[in-house]
């Protein structure tokens, strides 16, 4: 049965949800407070990464977080704040940093990322999209023996899960990347990964949705919800009141603000990431993560992107120059012939990624509201999980059995 559905949020998760919902014959409206041309969906590394099976909340991460707390240029920076929401999130994050949680999370992460990768293939073929999309795998480049040992162990876990992962020698690395100098001790290689140029997919998807009858309201902020008998009747924006049968909350880092109005209070923090682009020739052809620095390197369509860091410091768009410099310096440490110049660093951009305490997204309905489906909290994996999330949202709305289990993604899960 066709329904009127409002998607709150026009990032990658919102667009993919709208895509599958309109495919099911629903009338879909997307409302977003931005102009739909910036943010995390546009500045990410563009990875489709089944390799990233270990959640952010893993053993030892909290210890590193405390160690890096006083270094604003560290890969993970958690700014201490005396805010109740932040304290609750930090407590839950620390509790989730366990081997038991990781072992439960790995199969769920693998399932949703592999499904998502297949669905990107389907969309490109079915809609005849032309966005840049390559399947060259992903390198984990290590400068120290200690990090190499750690990455070898992670690759071993991935291989046990059936993913194409292996350790490669420096000679094999040179064969994979013959035209770029690297200063590393060794690497692991995930042949299972792919990469894209994010803004190309976003533009094609927006055009497709508009042509398919999806209504867009840009630069329109949702300020309140009209709720009665456990259901949302309408949303109140700064411009109008909009009614619908079902609502999707896919507002990224802003989702927790609206969730409070339902008494749900999603544990969610904004994790700021940065990117630097260079249009100059780098000769990099295979995506890589600079393991110690936690910097992602992606050869995109016409340029190379260096992206990274996780800065949990509340919702703000301030560009921290120390973090931009950290990314640029890492690029040169691993690729000694590459130097990002001042103009490129000045044009650095940031995006806010919604981070749940356990590194798993929130996908599903909450007992707090009958006609709201939540799709947020993907952290650095939003791009990798987007199409599968959209598919799951459409199945949840239709009350169908989901193509993969979603129990671990429940918005009502306890920490």
What's the layout of helices and strands?
Layout: E1 4-8, H1 12-23, E2 27-31, H2 40-43, E3 47-48, H3 61-68, E4 76-78, H4 84-96, H5 99-126, E5 133-134, E6 138-142, H6 145-160, E7 165-168, H7 170-176, E8 186-190, E9 194-196, H8 198-211, E10 215-217, E11 222-228, E12 231-237, E13 241-243, E14 246-249, H9 255-260, E15 269-278, E16 288-290, E17 295-299, E18 304-312, H10 321-334, H11 342-346, E19 349-355, E20 362-366, E21 369-376, H12 382-397
Parallel strand pairs: 1-2, 1-14, 2-10, 4-18, 6-16, 14-21
Antiparallel strand pairs: 3-9, 5-9, 6-8, 7-8, 11-12, 12-13, 15-18, 15-19, 16-17, 17-18, 20-21
Helix pairs in contact: 1-8, 1-12, 5-12
Tell me what the structure shows.
The protein is α/β, with parallel strands linked by helices and 415 residues long. It has helices spanning 12-23, 40-43, 61-68, 84-96, 99-126, 145-160, 170-176, 198-211, 255-260, 321-334, 342-346, 382-397; strands at residues 4-8, 27-31, 47-48, 76-78, 133-134, 138-142, 165-168, 186-190, 194-196, 215-217, 222-228, 231-237, 241-243, 246-249, 269-278, 288-290, 295-299, 304-312, 349-355, 362-366, 369-376. It has a domain at 46-82 and 133-194 and 268-355: D-Amino Acid Oxidase, Chain A, domain 2, CATH 3.30.9.10. 34% of the residues lie in helices and 25% in strands. Strands 4, 6, 7, 8, 15, 16, 17, 18 and 19 form a 9-stranded mixed beta sheet that branches. A 6-stranded mixed beta sheet has the order 10-2-1-14-21-20. A 3-stranded antiparallel beta sheet has the order 3-9-5. It starts with a strand and ends in an 18-residue tail after the last helix.
């Amino acid at each position: 049965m066709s329904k009127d559905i409002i998607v709150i949020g026009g990032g990658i998760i919102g667009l993919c949800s709208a895509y599958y919902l309109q495919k099911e014959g629903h009338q879909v409206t997307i409302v977003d407070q931005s102009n739909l041309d910036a943010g995390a969906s546009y500045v990410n590394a563009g990875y489709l990464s089944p390799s990233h099976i270990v959640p952010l909340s893993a053993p030892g991460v909290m210890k590193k977080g405390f160690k890096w707390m006083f270094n604003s240029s560290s890969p993970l920076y958690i700014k201490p704040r005396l805010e109740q929401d932040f304290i609750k999130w930090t407590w839950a994050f620390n509790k989730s940093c366990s081997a038991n949680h990781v072992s439960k999370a790995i199969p769920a992460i693998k399932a949703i990322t592999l499904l998502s990768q297949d669905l990107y293939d389907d969309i490109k073929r079915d809609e005849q999209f032309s966005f840049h999309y390559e399947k060259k795998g992903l390198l984990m480049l290590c400068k120290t023996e200690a990090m190499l040992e750690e990455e070898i162990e992670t690759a071993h876990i991935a291989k046990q899960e059936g993913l194409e992962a292996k350790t490669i020698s420096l000679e094999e690395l040179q064969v994979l990347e013959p035209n770029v100098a690297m200063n590393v001790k060794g690497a692991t290689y995930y042949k299972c990964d792919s990469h894209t140029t994010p803004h190309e997919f976003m533009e094609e998807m927006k055009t497709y949705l508009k042509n398919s009858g999806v209504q867009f309201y840009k630069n329109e902020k949702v300020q309140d919800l009209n709720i009665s008998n456990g259901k949302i009747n309408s949303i109140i924006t700064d411009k109008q009141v909009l009614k619908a049968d079902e609502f999707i909350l896919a507002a990224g880092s802003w989702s927790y603000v609206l969730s409070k109005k339902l008494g749900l209070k999603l544990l969610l923090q904004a994790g700021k990431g940065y990117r630097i682009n260079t249009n100059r020739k780098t000769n990099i052809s295979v995506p890589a993560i600079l393991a110690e620095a936690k910097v992602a390197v992606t050869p995109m369509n016409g340029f190379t992107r260096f992206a990274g860091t996780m800065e949990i410091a509340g919702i703000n768009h301030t560009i921290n120059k120390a973090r931009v410099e950290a990314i640029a310096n890492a690029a040169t440490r691993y690729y000694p012939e590459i130097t990002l110049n001042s103009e490129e660093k000045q044009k650095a951009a940031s995006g806010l990624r919604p981070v749940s305490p356990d590194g798993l997204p929130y996908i599903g309905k909450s007992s707090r509201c009958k006609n709201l489906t939540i799709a947020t909290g993907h952290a650095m994996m939003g791009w990798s999980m987007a199409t599968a999330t959209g598919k799951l949202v459409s199945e949840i709305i239709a009350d169908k059995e989901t193509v993969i289990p979603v129990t671990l993604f429940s918005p009502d899960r306890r920490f």
